[in-house]
Amino acid sequence: MLRQLGLGPDEEAVYRAMLAGGTGGISGLASQLGWTEERFRAALDRLAALSLVRPSADGGPGRPVDPELGLTALLMSQEEEVLERQRQISASRLAMTRMLADIRASGGQTANEVQKLRTMDQIQSKIEHLASTCTTEVAAFVPGGAQSAENLDAARPLDRAVVDRGVQLRYVFLDSAANSPATREYVNWLGARGGQVRTVPRLPSRMLIYDRDTAIVPVDPTAADLGALVLHGTGAVAALLAFFEHTWQQARPLGETASRTGEDPLSPPERAVLELLGQGMTDDAIARQLGVSVRTTRRITADLMQRLGARSRFEAGVLAAGRGWLCV
Q1: 227: number of Cβ within 10 Å
Q2: What torsion do the CA atoms of 197, 198, 204, 206 make, to the nearest 10 degrees?
Q3: Which domain holds residue 128?
Q4: Of 108, 138, 211, 317, which is the most exposed, with the fewest CB atoms less than 10 Å away?
């Protein structure tokens, strides 16, 4: 009953026994409680530390302090500790406010500027901050195909916090992510919490947009070690958001692949490979954008060249455009 004041069951039992006028010294009181003397002495020492028992003039086990005085003193001591903790919190809040003001004044966080993040730690810290403060929506491109179980496990706490606050979360993965059991399990987990995931055959690079006014994009999609750019409320964010919305409309739920039809002779992966070949990309670059192996890219290319009767990649692009397979 008095545990909140620092008294455990043993201390309370001894205190009550002494207040009731128990006699016989330590051995008699211990016997009355059915305890060993060692257990009784341990509780008595604790009561003395709490100033609920004073030394006895006759050398007995001690004199219990009036509970109205003793317990009130304990309560007042706890109240003082709470007040001191509140003073510490207020001081910490003031220090934090001053630090943030200094950072903003020095240009470290200017809402209308492009901010460059140079290290992965800086990027991760920015993502964690934006994920914890966004209020309406997170829209993201997630390239790379199948995601590792480690990366997905690391993403869950942030994603859970976002959707639990009622923030809309929309992810676009690559079609090739459907080949990963870990990614499928993550998508099902996210969908059960209200998050939405769609896929497309190709993505240009990783991109995160928070609340439609802040975006994070890589400095160079092919070199992660060059860092990332944070764009705040600029025209560039509006353009990126429009690109995301267009991609989202073209995307499909994970695992729902569009097959080749009589009206469209190309499957989405085939069309993506042809378009990227037309841009002069290498097999390695195409594989990265599609999130597949270089071997898969070469197989698709060889199949297309055979269907078109082309002897080179350049000729394949010309023949595909001539058949209306690609816009030129």
Answers
A1: 16
A2: 0
A3: 115-253
A4: 108
pLDDT tens digits for range 99-119: 656 655 655 444 456 888 988
Distance CA 157, CA 162 (A): 9
Which residue has better confidence, 284 or 94? 284
Question: Strands 207-210 and 137-142: what pairing?
Answer: antiparallel
Shared domain for 122 and 222, answered yes or no, is yes
Q: What are phi and psi of 175, to 5 degrees?
A: -55, -35
Phi, psi angle pair for 292, to nearest 5°? -125, 175
* Residue 53 token pair: 């028992």
Residues 234 and 307 in one domain: no
> Residue 17 sits in a domain of what CATH number?
1.10.10
Strands 137-142 and 168-174: parallel
Same domain, yes or no, for 141 and 187? yes
Query: Would you put residue 21 in left (φ > 0), alpha (ψ -120 to 50) or beta?
Result: left
Contacts of 157 (CB under 8 A, 6+ apart): none
Nearest to 268, CA basis, from 200, 174, 197, 206: 200
**Model confidence, pTM:** 0.54
Q: 160 and 235: one domain? A: yes
Number of domains the chain is built from = 3
Whether residue 105 is contained in a domain is answered as no
The confidence band for 169, taking pLDDT boundaries of 50, 70 and 90, is very high
C-alpha–C-alpha distance, residues 108 and 102, integer Å: 9
Question: Among 277, 267, 283, 259, which residue's Cα sits nearest to residue 318?
Answer: 277
Last residue of a domain, one of 65, 88, 105: 65
Do 297 and 287 meet the contact criterion of CB atoms below 8 Å apart?
yes
